[in-house]
Amino acid sequence: MIFYLVFRKRMNDKILQVVFFLLAITFMFDVYGLYTISKHKENFLPYNLNLLIEAVCLYIFFYQIFKNIPLKKIILSTGVFFVLYWVYKFIRAGGSNVFLGTCETIKNISIFALAIYYYYEQVIKINATSVFSQPAFWVVTAYLIYIAGTFFLLLYLPSLSPYDQEKYYVLNYAFVVIRTILLSVAMFMKADDPQATTNKLKVNSTLSKRSFN
Question: 137 in helix, strand or coil?
Fold first, then answer.
């Protein structure tokens, strides 16, 4: 409710709607996660549900910001595969009793790859000088930093002792705070003009071809 009252005037843009939902959902699950850790309770089911919702929101987000049709099809296919695989693992492995680590790995690798391509497209292909004023930039940066800071440690988490796992959770929530701040920054940025971005991409592509001819 608080998030909605603060950002309700910016809810007309589809990208910001996804960012708002992502911010609200992750905040809710993160607060509950801190509660379960403080009470030394299991957090498998909320974690796995958050994983699914977060991944779907991110695939929708990247599907919206990219205009390349083949890439949009890849994102759509990846999202469908992820959902089906999550359902399969949740039923087979018992998602209320274990972390779905394989699903987390798939999400992190795919989102990290999409984030890298986003930077490539903005800096190399479009050469966008105003990228810092775009909400998409801050969302991508938030998850790039979060994944880079937590993903590799997450791979070693099953082999750690309960004491060391609690240290990982402390580090993880430090990056969660950074991610939440950057997502909040995105909500204050003016939404992109998709048509203008597409036109700029076409113009830069034409100029690059002419420079080689």
Answer: helix
With a cut of 90, say whether residue 2 has pLDDT above it.
no
State the CB neighbour count (10 A cutoff) for residue 75: 22
Which alpha helices (H) appear in the chain, and where do they start and end? 2-7, 14-38, 44-65, 69-93, 101-120, 135-156, 162-187, 194-212
Q: Global pTM?
A: 0.79
Residue 169 DSSP class = H
- Which residue ranges make up each domain of the chain? 12-204
Instruction: Give the pLDDT confidence score for residue 74 in this predicted structure.
Output: 96
- More reliable by pLDDT, 151 or 10: 151
Whole-number Cα distances in Å, 40 to 35, 36, 163, 177: 8, 6, 12, 21
